[in-house]
Q: What sequence folds into this?
């Protein structure tokens, strides 16, 4: 029990590292929560800080998912009667929850896409490659990061089923995949409303001034 508790807590804390807030203050001297959608995630970072810093934020968020899934999951304090793969899923999920509800920013973080992608790559690389390809294709076509994230997330369980004979597949993975797809779409509900209204901003470098601040 101590092992699982330790893995959950440490993974949550790793996922809670507010990457976009740190990068916005470090590189631009601002708090990203005062700009764009006000969300402290990779989507808003791409929109407000430009694609270079936005990509950096997303990559670090991916690393958080990979680190929790592959490294923190290996901690052993006492005996654990769970499969190694299930423990990795627990660690990765805890990191995703930390990213979405970060303790370091009033439990208001990002959408969970980058950290979920990191967990996906760690657990099932082939599915990760396909989902990233979908994300990149939609992003290059539409320039909407939010719109790119959702089909990639929805494709996750479908890809897992299509490649279920690939090495690394486990029964628990499909349940996780379905849950993640639902969670990612849920965290993007405000983006969906803006997309329907035609108010969602595209990924581009924006001037950080009073006109762009507070545009929730």
A:
């Amino acid at each position: 029990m101590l092992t699982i508790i330790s893995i959950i807590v440490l993974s949550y804390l790793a996922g809670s590292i507010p990457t976009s807030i740190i990068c916005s203050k470090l590189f631009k001297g601002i708090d990203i929560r005062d700009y764009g959608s006000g969300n402290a995630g990779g989507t808003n970072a791409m929109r407000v800080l430009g694609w270079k810093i936005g990509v950096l934020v997303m990559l670090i968020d991916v690393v958080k998912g990979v680190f929790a899934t592959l490294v923190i999951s290996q901690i052993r304090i006492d005996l654990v009667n769970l499969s190694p793969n299930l423990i990795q899923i627990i660690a990765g999920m805890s990191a995703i929850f930390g990213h979405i509800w970060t303790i370091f920013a009033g439990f208001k973080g990002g959408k969970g896409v980058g950290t979920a992608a990191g967990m996906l790559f760690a657990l099932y690389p082939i599915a990760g490659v396909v989902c990233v390809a979908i994300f990149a294709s939609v992003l290059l076509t539409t320039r909407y990061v939010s719109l790119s994230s959702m089909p990639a997330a929805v494709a996750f369980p479908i890809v897992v089923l299509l490649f279920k004979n690939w090495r690394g597949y486990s029964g628990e993975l499909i349940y996780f995949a379905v849950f993640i797809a639902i969670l990612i779409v849920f965290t993007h509900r405000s983006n969906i409303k803006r997309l329907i209204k035609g108010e969602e901003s595209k990924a581009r470098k924006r001037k950080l001034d009073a006109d762009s601040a507070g545009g929730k």
Observations:
- Residues 2-197 form one domain.
- The chain has one domain: 2-197.
- The CA atoms of residues 157 and 198 lie 29 Å apart.
- Residues 51-70 form the longest helix (20 residues).
